[in-house]
Amino acid sequence: MSHAPTMFPARVTSRADIEAEISRRLGAERARLEGEAGLRTRPVEHFKRPAELPFTADQRDRVTILIGGLTWKHDALIRAAMQSAGYRVEVMPIPDVPAFQIGKEYGNNGQCNPTYFMVGHLIQFLQNLERQGMSRKDIIDRYVFFTAGSCGPCRFGMYEAEYRLAVQNAGFDGFRILLFQQTDGVKSATGEPGLKFTVDFGMGAFAGLNFGDVLNDVTYQIRPFEAQAGETDRVVDECMAYLGSRMREREMYDLRKSTSFIGSRMAKKPKLEGIFNTLGKVHDHLYGRQTDETLRHLRDRLATIEVDRLRVKPIVKVTGEFWAQTTEGDGNFHMFSFLEREGAQVIVEPIGTWALYMLWLAKATHASKKGLNGQGWKHELQHRLKQGYFALGRRFYAHQYRRVVRALGDIAHPLISLEELATLASPYYNVFARGGEGHMEVAKNIYYTTHKKCHMVLSLKPFGCMPSSQSDGVQSAVMSHFKDMIFLPIETSGEGEVNAHSRVQMALGEAKIKAKAEFQQALESTGKRLDDVRAFVADHPVLRNPFYKVPHRHGITGTAATFVLHVSDLMDGKARWAATPKKTAPVTDKAILKQAS
Amino acid sequence: MANTQYLVGLDVGSTTVKAVAIDATTDEMVWSDYQRHETKQPEKTLEFLQRLEADLQIGPDNCRMFITGSGGNTLAPRIGAKFVQEVTAVSLAVEKLHPEVNSVIELGGQDAKIIVFKEDSDTGRKKKIPSMNDKCAGGTGAVIDKINAKLKIPVEELGRQRYDGIKLHKVAGKCGVFAETDINGLQKEGTPPDELMASLFDAIVLQNLTVLTRGNTLRPHVLLLGGPNTFIDGMREAWQANIPKVWKERGIEVPQGETPQTLIKTPKNAQYFAALGAVEFGKAEDDTVGRYLGMTDLEHYITVGRLEEKAASGGRGLSASVDELATFKEQYKPKRFVAPPLPAGASVQGFIGVDGGSTSTKAVLLSPDGDVLRKVYQLSKGNPIQDAIDMFTSLRSQVEEAGSTLEVLGVGTTGYAKDILRDVLQADAALVETVAHTESAIKFYNDPHVIVDVGGQDIKLIVLTDGRVKDFRLNTQCSAGNGYFLQSTADSLGIPLTEYADRAFAADAMPIFGYGCAVFMQSDIVNFQRQGWAPEEILAGLAAVLPKNIFLYVASIPNLAKLGTRFILQGGTQHNLAAVKSQVDFIRSNFRGASVQPEIIVHEHCGESGAIGAAVEALRLWKNGHRTTFIGLNAVEKISYRTTRNEATRCYFCKNNCLRTFIDIKMNTVAALDGSAAIVDKPADETPKAVAAAPLKFVSKVPKADDEQRLIISTCEKGSVEDVEAMRTIKAGLDSKKKSHPNFVDIAAREVWRTRSPESVADPLPKPRAWDRAGRARLDAMTRRGALRIGMPRVLNMYTYAPFFSGYFESLGVLGGNLVYSDFTTNELYREGAGRGAIDPCFPAKIGIAHVHNLLVAKHAKKKLDYIFFPMVDTLHTELTHLQGSNACPTVTVTPETAKAAFTKEGDIFTEQGLVYLNPILNFDDLPLLKRQMFQTWAGALGLSEDENARATETGLRELAAYEADIRRRAREVLDELERENRIGIVLLARPYHHDPGLNHEILDEFQKLGYPVFTQSTLPLDDDLLERFFGDEVRDGVIPGPKAITDVWKNCYSANTNLKVWAAKLTARHPNLVALEMSSFKCGHDAPIYSVIESIIEKSGTPYFSFKDIDENKPTGSIKIRVETMHYFLKRYTEDKQRKKDAAAAIDVELAAYEQRLRAELLQAEEFAEVSARGRETFKGRMLPLIPVPAQSACESIAAD
């Protein structure tokens, strides 16, 4: 092997120069020899996760925020709330099976079903944009997707990474996936965050969730009994368009514009202005004229739907994993519409329950650690204060929810007490085993059965949902202990809709028999013929008003059974006529109405 | 029902139509029939209606109709019938006709249903708990149909087929295709059809009892419904034999005077139950519901509507246009193999490769230049040795027909029979299939990335990086469509296989098959025929679904661009151009690379590619100087052998009691002919694990002649001999190898359960005697602790925390021997206890119930336990830093709750057994909370004070830390040794509970036997110097906040074991002597999101990465064997390469040292010279300095001498 020719340095000045020269030449010689021996390879670069690009305030005007994943009503209302705060927002359509397939293509293997749907859903949307002619660079620059974040325990907390991997695999490298953290608010890597929590935005989103929950519940209570097929959907669509535009165009409270004596004074005091402006905004969102007027209009419009409550229908409470019990498409085999087609009345789960669960969990976890960080009155006081904050938060949420329920006809179900659910679940499922779906599914099954609020509980659990699947393991014992319970878990896997529907039909058959028997028994107990009851209802239009509040009967579940007993009492003069919300003066804002229509 | 004269119930099932007509007045059955519809549901239903109209004059004015069954929903609106869900219908009929029944088992053509009735004592109503099979055909009548198609038992005889008194064999009931595989094997051994069918009944019953009951007990009376239960005596007997075993185990009392035959029965009119139930349902409906509309609409549907339905549901044919097809055919027209001429009268030297596949055998003859001279293919005749003999004969005759003689320079074997063939033929190499296919692809095509090998039974997808197998997928868990399936369908449709492609291309449209289960695809074919799809359209549809089965079902890799750009299609099925086109189209349409198009090549010898790979290996060895050990062509033709596989060959050297195959070869004939030694010793690392020569003198249960050499095919080394002494020698060898290559998976799995014997931290006893109440209570408590026996399941996070619990309990006075763990997970343990499970989570969680069962029935029954302690570990301790959290997986956390539910749903078995079940939630990342949780759990039972509980908790954690430190110290020693010796160690990237041998299927033992030490993510050393060496720079550069942080690679770091896996992957990627083996369980929710992260971490560094994902309860022995052999092959190459590089680097170092010496001398001389010059210039300032030449060599020498 030959060496490179030795070259004397042009000028050697010191021993250090010599050492440097030796080192240089040895290095060069080593490189040559290693190259010849095939040992010279690129230096190893270790894997690093992709950098996250931020969404900053200066991009707000040109960047569209993508949201989705709840019911179409919730999504539309959240969008309206964000638009009212000045954001460009777009709602992605309800995920379907093609989205699921795309999710499987681009994500890791072995994900849970909602991950595939949601990840594929986003990519499908981006691909559609590209198909419409937008360049990838433009899509990446002009859109950002916001998703909820979490820190365990199931893989929901890892969704963020899954979205990133999938968009990268699909060729949208650098597309921004940002977290709407459940605990930390909106995160952004640098600068002022693009999405910022303001009071108006926060209260708007809060109202959007509540309005969405209650409207959803009301719709599912009215539609199975509508006298004219399709009327409910038509009216609800109108209502949603109206509500959306009212939220979007909402005039925000501003202390400085206040004409009241106190308001104008406070506006001049810089130290107090912020506080009072905030309080004013909160008050205006919750109790202001605009909110009241909007809800009243919705109620009046819904009240025009005529219902026939003498239709005997089994009531099915739908529970399960958060997304599977919420989505209204392929993600749960269109279960809600299927159940209604099959003759059931559905009780849907409000998102509010989840909000209360988060508050309850924080409170209960805090309570379980009482005294661990120190003893004495100071710790005791701190402990009680914090417990008080949690309790206050829970009460506030539940109270506001009740207000919306009352404003929208007072027929929607109130939020369930999470404390009661925890008590019911405890013998079967440790309430501190996190995940939410776990103990709540067990508890709701017991709650709705023992309170006779439904004939059947249907739990929608996506393939791969860990807490939900485990709760199913416990439900087998629950079912054994509550003999009259009809409970059906359905695994939603994205495929096999016919099979799933068949299983539901199987359990629903049972529930129908139960509902029919109950109705028959109720009718017989009145001693009246059904035709006579029908005739009486026909003569009294108020009984066909969807907001006519039929008094609850202890131990009776079905709507028709409860109704027939009440009508019988009315016929016999044993009961008072229940109140129906009075119709109010129509909203005068013609521009809004026009826009809504 | 004023004008309703008849209530008609129709049951349109997957194979039959059943109908009953009930007189509405008398409630009597006045008409009934049951007929197979031979895939023509609407036609048969119409025929029934015509007869009903003719016989009873039914019409819209006098008849209401209720329809059920899988075909009912579609037909209902066409005839005015009301659809009734099948289980509802059956339940109503059962309630009416057999009110005493508590359980119903209905086996249908494509479904299996179980209905459990539970009476509500308050209401008197019976609640029904139904369960049905899902998307899998396992345990249904379809499996019987499929197997009987093979066994060809006539229908009448099948009906009389018995179960009682028939010898049973092990047959998989979970899947019809696996059952077929088992039955194929048994059939080849000559097992009679009646034994096979009875074994299948047994498998179906066990499958349904363990899976479909969802943990419920089938209480008497049990009603058996559905075709197989009704018409096959043996099916009925199988239930009657197996259900009472469950009753006995679960303490269900059998009413006096009753027998299994009276309690488990098929009722009269069993076939009509669903139809009768539909009528029962109708009785409760309004009189307007189910009004019969007549046949007009149904007739219209049969003639017109169905075709429209077909058109709407189907897809376009395999090609978009005639031109597109022509272009495809032009591009993929198979290159006809033209055998090169051989020199007449001369000797032809060559290398033979033999591929002993499952359905066919292939062989090639390669020239010393690597050219294919001759090749031969034949369908397997059932014995690989005979097939191989035929191959050699054929190759030889092909050469001799050309007037040449054949000289074999080397022989390589591959395929499932490679080891047998190697030993019989004394071949030079036995190459695992994956490697053979890879070698073949590499030989013909530059840098292939993906090899798609579709053979008769197997689908293999081999993914390559730099010519090395990175990963491969094999359809071991499910058959999911393969070459054989295409072939058998073409056969059944009467189309020759050679015409498959042309016929399929001729179809303009085709039905869309759902990919996946082959049994269901079979039933799809039936449905499509019913809809009127023509045979060629069905063939096109099947070809189109093949790539979905390959890429989506078997491989689960939908985004093909991830794999690479060059795809090579191999395997016999690629001769079928229709299958090729669908694969080409699928790959192209699913290729998501931004701008690159995939290159898809069909191997020009696709059917023989495996054989070519084997021959290439023989050629390589020859070029390396190896000379063949092949017994010779004459000897091959004279091989005489016999195989035995029966009870006499069963191995009893361990509890598995595997059945082995003995092959006795007449060796003297072979030796005499060629004069070569019959069996020669192989180099140590080439000795096959499963095949070895048995000592001749041993007296076997299977008689053997003296001139016969016996080969024993067994599943492990110990079974490769018959003599216990020989086995001991083998075992001693294995033990010695184990010792020198420690397997920390195995070490951790054994040592974690050892008692820790810590010092007592219990409160002191009163001295000298207890006079007061408190003192006496203390004494009592301590006495109680000394006698207390606590059972703990050997599962899940107990694999991490057993030392903690040992430290905790023992330090409080509980005797180490009284801490009782359930047995290690075995298939038997799982089977015995799993029947109570109601859900199907990951296998590690599923075995929780079985372990509690084991504690109850094995441990507690033997010696009373006071408690079963199965804590719910919610958060884990961790050594890592900068994490979001340290949570356990929720499935794992809650498993103790599901286990509790399983044993308390039908009575509280714990209470009945006199013990207490404790499953508190525990948080190991929060010491104060942990202390409280332990105190709340054990204060009463152990009579604890808060202080001693706190001390015991701390002791437990200390013991845990000591255990972990000790095992890490030993791992460090081995790691250092690896570095010193430049060897390779494998890091198992898996959760600590994968140490469970029942979970990891002892795969790591196989690597240990091959000479690789095995580390695990939880036993990797954490010494500071090691961390500094591998992470120090990154910490200083601010890439990571600390050496034990993973923020640079994984953001959502809240799952403890996931975090640890990521960190261990980082260390493995940086350590020069470690390679990664990732293992995770099917349905692992916390592993799935980091699959790509782990892969990226390892592969980016150039470190070999292999994986066993989706590990489940079934031990995929074939797949494990192939994987281990493949990995070993490439690791050997990797090690050789490392050693070569190390040697080269050492040589370079030596050379550089010499160079440095010379260089230094030269430069110093130059410096000296410069100094002298400078001094001279100084001295003779302004004057002329004379130049004095200095010889360089002498200066060097003088410097060196100094």
Summing up helix and strand content along with how strands pair, one would put the structural category of chain A as: alpha/beta
**SS element count, helices of chain B:** 41
According to DSSP, the number of beta strands of chain A is 9
Distance between the first and last residues' Cα of chain B = 125 Å
Shape of chain A: globular
Largest interface: A-B, 96 and 114 residues
Largest sheet of chain B: 5 strands, mixed
Rg of chain B (C-alpha, Å)? 36 Å
Order of strands across the biggest sheet of chain A?
2-1-3-4-5
Pick out its properties.
heterodimer; A: 597 residues; alpha/beta; 5-stranded mixed sheet; 4-stranded parallel sheet; 21 helices; 53% helix; disordered N terminus; B: 1202 residues; 41 helices; 16% strand; disordered C terminus
Describe, in plain words, how this protein is organized in 3D.
The complex is a heterodimer of chains A (597) and B (1202). In chain A, the strands form two sheets. In chain A, strands 2-1-3-4-5 form a five-stranded mixed β-sheet. A four-stranded parallel β-sheet of chain A has the order 7-6-8-9, sandwiched between helices. Chain A has helices at 15-36, 72-84, 97-106, 113-131, 136-142, 159-169, 199-222, 231-248, 261-267, 270-287, 289-302, 335-341, 351-368, 377-407, 418-425, 437-450, 466-481, 497-526, 530-539, 559-572, 590-596; strands at 64-67, 88-91, 143-149, 176-181, 185-186, 315-320, 345-347, 456-462, 487-492. With 597 residues, chain A is an alpha/beta fold. Residues 1-10 and 182-190 of chain A have low confidence and may be disordered. Helix content of chain B is 46%, strand content 16%. Chain B has 41 helices and 36 strands. In chain B, the strands form nine sheets. A five-stranded mixed β-sheet of chain B has the order 3-2-1-4-5, sandwiched between helices. In chain B, strands 8-7-6-9-10 form a five-stranded mixed β-sheet, with helices on both faces. Chain B has a five-stranded mixed β-sheet with strand order 14-13-12-15-16, with helices on both faces. In chain B, strand 27 (790-792), helix 28 and strand 28 form a beta-alpha-beta unit. In chain B, helix 4 runs antiparallel to helix 7 (193-212), helix 16 packs across helix 22 and helix 20 (535-554) crosses helix 21 (577-589). Mean pLDDT of chain B is 85; it is low at 671-696 and 1189-1202.
